[in-house]
Amino acid sequence: MRTSERLPLAALLCAALTLAGCASAPVWDEDEGWLEDGPPARPVDVSRVPDAVPRHEPRSRYGNPDSYVVNGRRYHVLPTARGYVARGIASWYGRKFHGRRTASGEPYDMYRMTAAHRTLPLPSYVRVTNLENGRSVVVRVNDRGPFHPNRIIDLSYAAAARLGMLERGTALVEVRAITPGERAPARATRTAARAAPRIYVQAGAFADRRNAERLRLRLLRAGLRAVALQRHDHPDLPLYRVRLGPFASVEVADRVSVRLWRLGIADAHVVVD
Predict the structure, then answer these.
(1) Which domain holds residue 244?
(2) Is 21 exposed, middle or buried (0-12, 13-18, 19+ CB in 10 A)?
């Protein structure tokens, strides 16, 4: 199930945006009473729900401030989706929000191929590929979220079902933007020559190796294990990344992230290689 919070439309209209908190409350349904989030009350076959079809659209009147703040963290909306590619953990949201307004002002329909993203312009189109089973969908991004720090995209119920991630609630994915009118990007696939995706927690990245080494030693002294320093040859200068892992599951990576946050390492986040 989903592991993030929705951002109310009204909050996005404020100059200094904060999460109201009421979006996480249960939703009243006249037939079923108070609802927690999850799949439809009755099974629905969404296997034939078509992918979103990328088309040129004006930017939404709502949901596209230059920046906004949620839970004390500022997010900057990208000027364009062109070239966006990211790997990480996807979550999904369902009946609790069905029919409620998204950040773009449109009603959320859990039976359509849509998604929420923190920084892509609204609307945008992306191909989401489940790196664990190779399934792929094209969704229209029309909402803001997820605001769980270790998630990169929140998918509709239909999209999550097509990707085979409903039961676990999360999936390791690649998100790749599609520019309408251009050839759609190929989906990421696993091949015999390519290992299965691995989950790490990145505690920091530094241009100075000495700073990276100091953080690595600090984590080891705090009792953390599997701490590695990796050099990444960036075009401008080398970067030294301090990473923990790989971990066997999203849940373990989340627990390690929480431990790092408690140590004051606010930028710790999950990465998928």
Answers:
(1) 199-272
(2) exposed
Q: Is 121 part of a structural domain of the chain?
A: yes
Distance CA 266, CA 168 (A): 27
Peptide bond into 246 cis (omega under 30): yes
Domain CATH for 253: 3.30.70.1070
CA distances from 191 to 4, 68, 87, 129 (A): 32, 40, 17, 14
* Number of compact structural domains in the chain: 2
What DSSP element (H or E) covers 143?
A: strand 136-143
Q: Are residue 210 and residue 130 in the same domain, yes or no?
A: no
Please tell me the distance from the alpha carbon of residue 273 to that of residue 55, in angstroms, as a whole number: 31
pLDDT for 102-131, tens place per residue?
Answer: 999 999 999 999 999 999 999 999 999 999
21 and 134 in a single domain? The answer is: yes
Q: What one-character DSSP code corresponds to residue 23?
A: G
**Over the stretch 163-188, which tens digit does the pLDDT of each residue have?**
999 999 999 999 999 999 877 666 66
Supply 122's token pair.
């609204």
Burial bucket for residue 231 (CB in 10 Å: 0-12, 13-18, 19+): exposed
Q: Is residue 191 part of a domain?
A: no
- What's the rounded Cα separation, in Å, for the pair 130 and 137? 9
> Which residues, including other chains, have CB under 8 Å from residue 43's CB and lie 6 or more apart?
none
For the entire predicted model, the pTM comes to 0.84
Spell out a b/e string for 148-177, using b for 16 or more CB atoms within 10 Å of the CB, else e. bbbbbbbbbbbbbbbbebbeebbbbbbbbb
Residue by residue, DSSP assigns 92-119 as: EE-GGGTTSB-TTSSBP-TTSSEEE-SS
